[in-house]
Amino acid sequence: MFVQTLLLASILAANSADEHPAPSNQDASAALRGRSALLAHSYLKAEWRIDAYRNAWKLWGTTSAPDPVADPDGYARAFADYYGLHPAPYDNEGLPMGLRWSKKADGTRTGFQVDCMACHGGSIGGKSYVGLPNSTVDYELLLFDLFRADGRKPPLVPFTINTARGTVNAGMMSVVLLSVRNPDLSRRVFPLLLGANLPELDAPAWWTLKSKATMYQDGRTPAASVRSIMQFLLADKSRSEFEALEPTFADIHAYIRSIEPPAYPLAVDAPRAARGKEIFERSCARCHGTYGPDRSYPSKIVPIDVVGTDPARLMGISDRAVEHYNASWFAEHHRVSPARVGYQAPPLDGIWATAPYLHNGSIPTLHALLLSSERPARFTRPPSTGLEHYDARNVGWNYQVVDPPDPAAPRKPTREAHFVYDTRRHGLGNQGHTFGDKLTEEQRMELIEYLKTL
Ligand code: HEC
Ligand code: HEC
Question: Is 236 helix (H, G, I), strand (E, B) or coil?
Answer without folding.
Answer: coil
